[in-house]
Specification:
This protein has 13 helices and 14 strands. By secondary structure, the chain is α/β, with parallel strands linked by helices. Helix 1 crosses helix 3, helix 2 packs across helix 3 and helix 4 packs across helix 13. The two termini are 24 Å apart.
């Protein structure tokens, strides 16, 4: 998709160099999610004309953003918004004075199922905007340490990117021993009580799946399948509950059209796709982008085309869905915004502000692309 060019330079920043004003304007569009990874910028001459600036000035601003990893130029194709997973830390044009340090602790996971990197990017940006340093610490290292070593970092608070707690994890005792406020940026609804941490942001996965089913119904699909993680993790006590929700949405998902997986290897996804395809659904709901990617690959082997032969929709909104052909339709959890929100709420804990509740539900939205067709 080509970015819109409804841009206007503010009139109250005349003391700042013009190229820095342009940089901040473009960066704001990227951070706010108006321009998403994979979107193409308009031609330089059109963008310069819209902003009423010299193309040389525009080029200086765009070169700065490319150096910072926010944009990339593809020979003969134009300039595109870059993937935040490979973006280095954004440098602000103004001087930075730190008000303190926050810790972002998460597992070392760079697989296609890793949303933590996107959450960390959002947290990094927002912490810097609020005048705080954000130090990322691998969870694996913390497990071999102790509370005192974390206290020695003189941090004000901790964001812990981990889920599915049983209550017996060593990390719980280590982090509680620091006496610092601890926030979970996402998790299952039992995680907060099980871990005993201070605050949690969460996505209502069941609501997300309902939103996906309602969308498929609007597109004319009546017989659909589900493949992905155990339904328990999405808020369904049993398969019958998903069957019932599907009926309420006006579509059919029988128990034979449900394939739950414990692991997400290509072989596991292939087996799940084969199991539900025997029932000939017109659409498949995937519990995450990585499962949808596996489904794309297996349908290709079966010589089936998306969306002509089968429609696919996923929960999550990882950045890779932008680059699939056709582009993947998703219920977007907006992980970058989750990271920003995590910092804002953690700083409220640091300031000891009173919060209305300890579990904060985050917003989701449909991103309609090209992987679902109308029947």
């Amino acid at each position: 998709m080509t970015c819109d060019i409804d841009l206007e330079l503010p009139s109250d920043q005349l003391s700042e160099p013009l190229y820095l004003q342009v940089r901040e304007l473009v960066l704001k569009r990227i951070v706010n999610g108006d321009w998403r990874p994979g979107d193409r910028l308009p031609p330089d001459r059109d963008l310069a004309a819209q902003l009423k600036i010299n193309p040389v000035t525009l080029g200086k601003a765009l070169n700065m953003l490319r150096d910072e990893g926010c944009l990339n130029r593809r020979q003969g194709r134009g300039t595109f918004i870059a993937d935040p997973l490979v973006r280095p830390k954004i440098k602000e044009s103004h001087s930075f004075e730190s008000h303190g340090k926050l810790l972002f602790i998460g597992a070392l996971d760079h697989s296609i199922r890793d949303y933590g990197s996107i959450i960390a990017s959002g947290a990094q940006y927002q912490a810097h905007q609020c005048g705080y340093e954000l130090e990322s610490v691998p969870l694996e290292y913390v497990l071999y340490g102790n509370s005192k070593l974390i206290q020695d970092q003189h941090a004000s608070g901790i964001i812990l990117n981990a889920t599915a707690f049983s209550g017996n994890e060593k990390i719980i005792d280590i982090l509680k021993g620091t006496g610092l406020p601890i926030l979970l940026p996402h998790g299952y609804q039992w995680d907060l009580n099980t871990s005993g941490f201070d605050l949690m942001l969460y996505v209502d996965h069941r609501q997300a799946l309902l939103k996906a089913m309602q969308y498929l119904k609007q597109k004319g699909h009546c017989r659909c399948a589900y493949i992905g993680c155990g339904l328990f993790y999405l808020g369904y006590p049993s398969r019958k509950d998903l069957v019932t929700d599907a009926k309420k949405c006006g579509i059919e998902i029988t128990e034979e059209l449900i394939a739950e997986m414990e692991h997400f290897s290509p072989e596991d996804i292939d087996l799940a796709v084969d199991a539900v395809w025997k029932e000939r659904p017109t659409a498949i709901l995937c519990s995450m982008d990585a499962v949808a990617l596996g489904a794309y690959a297996h349908f290709s082997i079966l010589n089936l085309k998306i969306p002509e032969d089968i429609s696919v929709i996923a929960l999550g909104g990882n950045i890779g869905g932008e680059f699939l052909e056709p582009r993947l339709t998703v219920i977007d959890y907006n992980f970058f915004q989750l990271g920003k929100d995590a910092v804002d709420y953690l700083l409220r804990l640091v300031r000891q502000e009173e919060l209305p509740e300890r579990m904060i539900q985050t917003q989701i939205k449909l991103l309609e692309r090209g992987s679902c067709r109308a029947l």
